[in-house]
Write a structure and sequence with these properties.
- This protein is of the alpha+beta class.
- The protein has one domain: 2-Layer Sandwich (Heat Shock Protein 90), CATH 3.30.565.
- Helices cover 35% and strands 28% of the residues.
- The chain contains 4 helices and 6 strands; from the N terminus they run ββααββααββ.
- It has a 6-stranded antiparallel beta sheet with strand order 1-2-3-4-6-5, covered by helices on one side.
- β3 and β4 form a beta hairpin.
- α1 runs antiparallel to α2 and α2 packs antiparallel against α4.
């Protein structure tokens, strides 16, 4: 099983086999990156959203097949975060889910509602197997 990490001061890339244990490893790498870049005060919502997106990629996109790979990229620039998550699955009809109203009684399908709450912009590729999340960040003192 594969778990590869590449990092620079403003970039984190993780490629891993689609299995649950790698989600936890990826989340630890993400937390470390955010802390190293002074964003620990924003980490709760970011990490919660990314865990949801990674779970979707492993469960729905890759059908928990450890031979399929998940590609995660996080780029930090002067205005905020840009995150890409792509799986090797068939994709899904994201247009149906993106504008769905979330209800607090729902036991599943809450991931997009969580991501919409914490990120400024969410887009998918046409196929529906790659998500792009953007989060604008203000300086910590604003």
């Amino acid at each position: 099983m594969t778990f590869q990490v590449s990092r620079r001061s403003n970039f984190l890339s993780i490629k891993f086999s689609a299995c649950f244990q790698h989600i936890d490893q990826a989340v630890e790498e993400i937390k470390r990156f955010l802390t190293e870049n002074g964003l620990e005060y924003k980490s709760f919502g970011i990490v919660l959203s990314l865990r949801e997106a990674l779970l979707n990629a492993v469960i729905h996109g890759s059908n928990q097949n450890p031979y399929k790979m998940i590609q995660f990229k996080l780029h930090l620039n002067v205005t905020g975060l840009i995150i890409e998550i792509e799986d090797q699955g068939p994709g899904f009809d994201w247009k149906t889910f993106l504008n769905r109203k979330w209800q607090s009684t729902m036991e599943s399908k809450r991931g997009l509602a969580i991501m919409k709450f914490y990120f400024s912009n969410i887009t998918y590729n046409n196929k529906g197997n790659k998500i792009l999340l953007k989060k604008q960040l203000l300086p910590h003192n604003q």
